[in-house]
Amino acid sequence: MKPRIWIVFLLLIQIVVHGQSQEIVFVPPSFDFISLSLQTHEGKLRFGNQDEYFQKSDGTYISSRDDGYFEMDRRSSHNRASRHAFVELLKMRFKKEMFSAMDRNYFTEQKQNMYEEEMKSHTAQLHVLNLANALCNKTQSNRLFCNPKEEDCASVFPKDGYYNEPRNIKGWGGRSASEFQKLRAYTTFVEELFPSVEQWADTLYPDNTLEGYYVVKTQLGQYDFKAGGYWLHTHQFHNQGFLLSWHDLQPANSFERKLMHPNGSSLLLKMVPEKAEAFSEKNQQIFLTFKVSVSLNGLENYRADQLKTTFVLDSPIITIYSDDSLTRKVAEMDIGSVEIKTR
Prior knowledge:
This protein is of the alpha+beta class. The protein has helices at 2-12, 69-92, 96-100, 116-135, 138-145, 153-156, 179-203, 254-259, 273-282; strands at residues 14-17, 23-26, 36-41, 44-48, 209-219, 223-224, 229-233, 265-270, 285-299, 307-321, 329-334, 340-342. It has 9 helices and 12 strands. Strand 3 and strand 4 (44-48) form a beta hairpin.
């Protein structure tokens, strides 16, 4: 009985790690998988723009010759892998019907005319391959995605401390694997590891609601002497970030609707000329944070494999920072009183 209790505990525990920025670590159900280390702000998940670890506030980067560079590089690698794996796990709750149709013994080959169940099975198997690449630790990846007859398995995967890049999808069995090796790797993962992945996915925010901060980056632009500040253009908020995009915002009042004007809008960051001159010499970009509640709303469709999200603002206060680690606070804005102009 005790081992089962311990497994449940591992599935749910969250550990906060302190460093340049705080991170929440989601401990996996077994050592076969990587832990998920996600950035936070004020103790809550950070969405949108992420801390790039070694980027300075002026947009330049710490040199690879600088102290601490490789520690930051490894943390960045872990964070990229974690964000990708986290989203893949969140998608799983909306794929239960597809996974139930998946053939767990043989590959479902793609052909021109496929029944719906065959299409679901084939698509599910592709998604399982993505999950295995995203979640398996180095030992399991070596077992499932390396062919010792064709490859030096010691050098195929990233060195210790680094993680597989999200776009680097390796095939079952490794390079030049036979059909027997491919099938053996697939069925091994499905039988031995996939049930734990399904259970892990079910423990992550089961009510499909997440709380945190949405972060956007914008260029400071040119100072407006007549208005007495900088106009921050919302069209620069549309860059794709972790889990959320600006167009996912669901406005709740007239001020938020004006902020979301289809032609774009601008917010005035008030700053006296003397302060603005000194500030602009040191900062080319700034970061705006919004406190939000996020809803997971399913997938666009099982072929597109895009998670649908929306969010609402939990506070009218926008906090502005000059660095991507959100440590140097510049100002606060209240959406209800800040000057907003539309095009």
